[in-house]
Amino acid sequence: MPSTVIPVYYDYASSLCYIAKKVMEQLTGQLDVELLWKGVQISRRHPGWRNGEVIGEEARGKILRVARETGIALRIPPRWIDSAYALEGAEFAKDQGQFSAYHDAVFAAVFEEGKDIGDLPTLLRVAESAGLSSTALEHALTTGMFTARVQATEAEAATFGVIGYPTFLLGEFPLTGIQPADTMRLLLQRYVEQSRKHVRH
Question: pTM score, two decimals?
Answer without folding.
Answer: 0.94
